[in-house]
Specification:
Elements: E1 2-6, E2 9-13, E3 17-23, H1 38-50, E4 55-59, H2 72-89, E5 95-98, H3 102-111, E6 115-118, H4 128-135, E7 139-142, H5 160-178, E8 183-186, H6 195-203, E9 216-217, H7 223-229, H8 237-249, E10 254-257, H9 260-275
Parallel strand pairs: 3-4, 3-10, 4-5, 5-6, 6-7, 7-8, 9-10
Antiparallel strand pairs: 1-2
Helix pairs in contact: 1-2, 2-3, 3-4, 4-5, 8-9
Length: about 280
C-alpha cells in the first residue's frame, strides 16, 4: 500500500484510485472533457465527485500530438479561478494540476491544489522538479519521447519497456535529490509511442512495480483504442474500460479517466473477482 502526503492530507492507496480529467481547452482530443467556463468546471466536478472520483485533474494546456503551447500566464487565468470555485464548494477535494510550467505549479498549490501532474517529467521547464521539491507535494512524473509537437513523428525504441524503466530510475533519483518524497510514475501511453509500443507497455506494466512507486495509467479514449477498433473517439468508452481492466490487472494504482462512473465500476468488479 502507498500513502501520498497531499499537502498535509494523507491519501492511502489501499485500492486503485480514479482521477477525473477536466480540461479548459477548446481542442482537447475528446470533446467530453472540454470545459469553457468555471461554472462548467464546477458542474463537471460535482458529477465526477458524485460518481466516485478520488482526484480531479485540471489542465489548461492541450498536449495532444501536434498541439500548440500556451504561456504559463494563460494557464493561470483559467486554472486559479477553477481551483477556487471547486474548493469553495468541495473543500476536501484533492486537486491535481496538469502542467509542465513551474510557475503554474507553484501558484496552483498556493491556491489549494495538492498534486502536480507533469507530462514532461521536468524536461520542458528545468525549474519544475526543484519547485515541486520545495512545495512538498506528490509529483506525477510521465515519460514522453520528444515534445507534444514532435512526439508522434515516428517514435523509435530499441526496447521500450527497458528504456522507460531506465528513464524512471533516473527521474526518481532526480526527484529524491530535489526533496520530492511522493513520486507517481506514468509510462505515458500515447506520448511518443506507436500503437504497438502502447500495447507492449500495457502488457508489461507490472515490470514498473519494481520501482516501488504508484503507477498511473492514462489510457482513456486514446487513439490506441479508437484507431485499433476503427471507431470515433466518442465511441471508445467500451474499449477504454477493457484497457482500464488490463491496466489494473497488470498493476495500475491510479486510472486517469474521462468517465469516472464506468472506471469505478470496473475497479469494483475486478476487486470482487480477485477476492473470489
Amino acid at each position: 500500500m502507498f500513502t501520498l502526503n497531499c499537502k498535509g492530507k494523507l491519501m492511502a492507496i489501499e485500492k486503485p484510485l480514479v482521477m477525473g480529467i477536466i480540461n479548459f481547452t477548446g481542442d482537447s482530443f475528446y470533446e467530453g472533457s472540454r470545459m469553457k467556463t468555471t461554472e462548467a468546471v464546477l458542474e463537471k466536478s460535482t458529477q465526477m465527485l458524485s460518481e466516485g472520483a478520488d482526484i480531479l485533474d485540471l489542465g489548461a494546456q492541450t498536449t495532444k500530438p501536434g498541439s500548440t503551447r500556451i504561456s504559463a500566464d494563460e494557464e493561470l487565468k483559467k486554472i486559479i479561478p477553477a481551483i477556487e470555485k471547486i474548493l469553495q464548494k468541495y473543500p476536501e477535494t484533492i486537486i491535481s494540476i496538469d502542467t509542465y510550467h513551474a510557475k503554474v505549479a507553484a501558484a496552483s498549490i498556493e491556491a489549494g491544489a495538492r498534486i502536480i501532474n507533469d507530462i514532461s517529467a521536468g524536461t520542458l521547464d528545468k525549474d519544475m522538479i526543484p519547485t515541486v521539491g520545495e512545495l512538498k507535494v506528490p509529483y506525477i512524473c510521465m515519460h514522453m519521447q520528444g515534445t507534444p509537437q514532435t512526439m508522434q513523428k515516428k517514435p523509435v525504441y530499441g526496447n521500450p519497456v527497458q528504456e522507460i524503466l531506465d528513464f524512471f530510475i533516473d527521474k526518481i533519483n532526480q526527484c529524491k535529490q530535489a526533496g520530492i518524497t511522493d513520486v507517481i510514475i506514468d509510462p505515458g501511453f500515447g506520448f511518443g509511442k506507436t500503437i504497438a509500443h502502447n500495447f507492449v507497455l500495457l502488457k508489461n506494466l507490472g515490470v514498473f512495480k519494481m520501482l516501488d512507486r504508484p503507477i498511473l495509467a492514462g489510457l482513456s479514449r486514446k487513439s490506441t483504442i479508437y484507431k485499433t477498433l476503427g471507431i470515433p473517439v466518442n465511441d471508445a468508452l467500451n474499449g477504454t474500460i477493457v484497457m482500464h481492466t488490463l491496466a489494473l490487472q497488470n498493476g495500475a494504482d491510479i486510472l486517469r479517466v474521462h468517465d469516472v462512473k464506468e472506471a469505478r465500476q470496473a475497479i469494483t468488479l475486478l476487486n470482487k473477482y480477485c477476492e473470489a
